[in-house]
Amino acid sequence: MKTKNTTITVSNNTRNTKYKIVNFMFLTLSILFLGSCNTNDDNDNPPVETRDGLEFKAEIIENRNEAKQIVDINGSANSEVYGTEGTILYFPANSFVDQNGIPVTGNVAIELVEIYDKAKMLLTKMPTNGKRPNGDVETLISGGEFYINATQAGEQLELANAFQLIAPAETFDNEMTLFNGQNNNCDDEFECDIVWEEDEEADLEPIQREGPDGGVVNGYGGFISNFGWTNIDRWYNDPRPKTLLQVDVPEGYDNTNCNVYISYDGEPTALALLDIYDPETELFSEHYGLIPIGLEAHIIFVSVQNSEYVYAIQEVVIEEDHIEVIETTSTAAESQLIDLINELP
Predict the structure, then answer these.
(1) Domain that holds residue 109
(2) CB within 10 Å: which end of the chain, N or C, has fewer?
């Protein structure tokens, strides 16, 4: 069989076109490959989830309301109110006037909140932060925090004279005195963030008297001439050098949706709020670098998300320029968190 040989000659124009097609395909594949790499990078670094802060704030106010006890007394007679944790309030007869200064008779509703431990301080956001006359904010040791108010038929009453507060205590500390809660001109004092300022005109004395069950009550007694938040405190004193404490919280959290506290070991009622937040560094801190170097303490992070407490508790020994990093958190019911806080040293 005879074979016919045929030679195909490719012109320069056709060859150039072929090269252009190959180059275009290579460029297209490169773009697709780079695009797939960018997509993978986005998946590896998803956007930070925004945490809800409204639920957390609502929980704090709900805890304060749940702690409020309301007792009716006769405004025209000498009356006492007994708190469930041992607080006693004594109101002399005719202690109340209305907004026009007219003496009040009949039933008067007394509102009382009593806080004697760290767990309740944390749940109600009532830390032991005290403000010095020069503006410095330092830690206090509390002998009891109280909210006291009086209304009649829903109308706010005023005091015509001072009333007596008695707070139970096993021993009497001569350095304790009365502090008033300052709310920075917040509209509703009961719901406001509070810092404590010393009442330089008030005085405390040791009390021993009969309680409502007939037993002996020992503690602090003082006269109060204003409604609102009151605290029995002394300043925390430590001679060691001081430093600034900063805390780095998990991603997605800031001062709108969590709180950070320092619990002082060996002091059952010293719980300070780190109330300074720097949005640039994303660090919480206390005010003026007044944390003692060498202090043994626990850092507590807390929030509420999806009806659960989100928390972290980390044991620390404070070092110079201390930055504590909170990397992992746990969840707990309220009762579980209360037990964890009250078990701290």
Answers:
(1) 54-235
(2) N
Summarize pLDDT for 107-151 with one digit per residue, the tens: 999 999 999 999 999 999 999 999 999 999 999 999 999 999 999
- 63 and 156: one domain? yes
Low-confidence ranges of the chain (pLDDT < 50): 1-42
Pairing of strands 137-152, 129-131: antiparallel
Q: In 3-state terms, what secondary structure has residue 263?
A: strand
Q: How far apart are CA 122 and CA 334, in angstroms?
A: 11
Do 92 and 165 lie in a common domain? yes
Q: Which two tokens stand for residue 284?
A: 């919480």
- Which class for 22: exposed (0-12), middle (13-18), buried (19 or more C-beta within 10 A)? exposed
Question: Which residue, 235, 269, 288, sits at the end of a domain?
Answer: 235
**Residue 47 confidence (pLDDT):** 59
Collapsing DSSP to helix, strand or coil, 25 comes out as helix
pLDDT (0 to 100) of residue 94 = 97
Asked whether residue 110 is domain-assigned, the answer is yes
Question: Do residues 261 and 302 touch, judged by C-beta distance below 8 A?
Answer: yes
Dihedral class, residue 57 (left if φ above 0, else alpha if ψ from -120 to 50, else beta): alpha
Q: Would you say 261 and 200 are in contact if contact means Cβ atoms under 8 Å apart?
A: no
pLDDT of residue 44: 55
Per the DSSP assignment, residues forming a β-bridge with 207 are 219
